[in-house]
Structure formats: C-alpha cells, structure tokens
Amino acid sequence: MFCFRFSHFLFFFSLFSFFFYIFGASPNKIQATPVDAKKMVESRIKCYVCNSGTKGQADCTEDDHDKLKTFIKQCNPLTFGTFAGEEAKACRKVRQTVEDETTIVRECAYTGEELDGKRRTGNKGVTVLIDQCINDQNATFPCNSALSPPTGASVSLLFALSSMIFATFLCL
Predict the structure, then answer these.
(1) Is the dihedral of CA 137, 139, 142, 146 positive or negative?
(2) Is residue 13 part of a domain?
(3) Please, are residues 96 and 105 in contact by the beta-carbon 8 Å criterion?
(4) How far apart are CA 149 and CA 133, in angstroms?
(5) Residue span of the signal peptide, if any (predicted)?
(6) Tens digits of residue pLDDT in 103-115
(7) Residue 7 and residue 9: Cα distance in Å, rounded?
(8) What is the phi-psi region of residue 125: left when phi exceeds 0, alpha when psi lies from -120 to 50, beta otherwise?
(9) Residue 32 resides in a domain
(10) Is 93 in contact with 32 (CB distance < 8 Å)?
(11) Residue 37, domain member (yes or no)
(12) Do 3 and 141 contact (CB within 8 A), yes or no?
C-alpha cells in the first residue's frame, strides 16, 4: 500500500512540476514580490540584430563572433502589434534567397516556437530558411550565429517519466 501511494505521489509531483514549468508558473509570479527594474533590464535577452541588405551591415552574413560583435543588441519589449509589451523569448536568424541574392537577417524573436532550419518557400525563386534559438544564461555571445541546445521543457518531461518508472521498480 505504501509503494502504491509513494509511486503515485512521485508521478503526480513530477507531472505537476512539468506543467508548472511549461505554463510559466513560478513562485515569483504567484507571490507579490518587489521587482528590481535594473535586474529586469540586465536579464533581457541579447541577440545579434542586423540585416545584410542594409548599407554598412555586410558582416551580418558572417558566422564569426568577432565580426558580429558590433551587432549585439539588448532585446526590448515590443511596443506595438500582436506581441506588444512582450519580452523577447529567443533569437532568430533568417536566410532569405530571392533568385540568386541571399540576405541574412538576425533579430530578436518574440514567439517561443522552435524553428530549427524551418524552410518556407514563397513565389517562384523565393526561399526562406529560419533558425530560432534560446540563449544560454552564461553565454558570451548571442546564439543566433549558430543553433542552440534543447530547452528545459524536455528535461522536465524526462524527469516526470523517469520518476514514474523509478517508483514502479521500487515497489516490485
């Protein structure tokens, strides 16, 4: 009887923590705590922001951090549109080819979609390749020069499943 209750407790606890993580709930959001505006600004995502089609930004096509360094910008919340007031969630690199001319656009991303080499084809001769990544907290450089590792959601789900399996074998 103890094993049955313990295994259910482990499973539901880990599942609850997974959903808690996915839907963005945290003790800071639940409790009213003072907000340090300076820390919020410092913790904002930094991405490379450039367009190789803009005069003076030809180095935007490079993947060398030293050449991209001048394009590092802090991503501020959007002031208009569907995502107005939202903080950036990731960085994005868009490679657009129109006939024989390729343009690279690096920017802040305000959607949490996972776009790893997503290919979109438009009119004849137009191809768009999109990569979106989430910066590592300890990263020296923004991630939109290359791809990033998987996010914590998959780790949280893996923990939930492994807890259930562990509890099952514990009671055998």
Answers:
(1) negative
(2) yes
(3) yes
(4) 8
(5) 1-24
(6) 999 999 998 776 7
(7) 5
(8) left
(9) no
(10) no
(11) no
(12) no
Contact 148, 154 (CB under 8 A): no
- Residue 158's domain comprises 2-26+51-170
User: According to DSSP H, which parts of the chain are helical?
Assistant: 2-22, 27-30, 37-42, 65-68, 152-170
* Distance set, CA 115 to CA 18, 49, 133 (Å): 22, 18, 8
Number of independent structural domains in the chain:
1
Q: Is 153 left (phi over 0), alpha (psi -120 to 50) or beta?
A: alpha
Instruction: Judge if pTM exceeds 0.85.
Output: no
Flag whether 36 is in a domain: no
C-alpha to C-alpha distance for 50 and 56, rounded to whole angstroms: 10
DSSP assignment of 96-123: EEETTEEEEEEEEE-S----EEEEEE-S
b vs e for 143-162, b when ≥16 Cβ sit within 10 Å of the residue's Cβ? bbbeebeeeeeeebbeebee
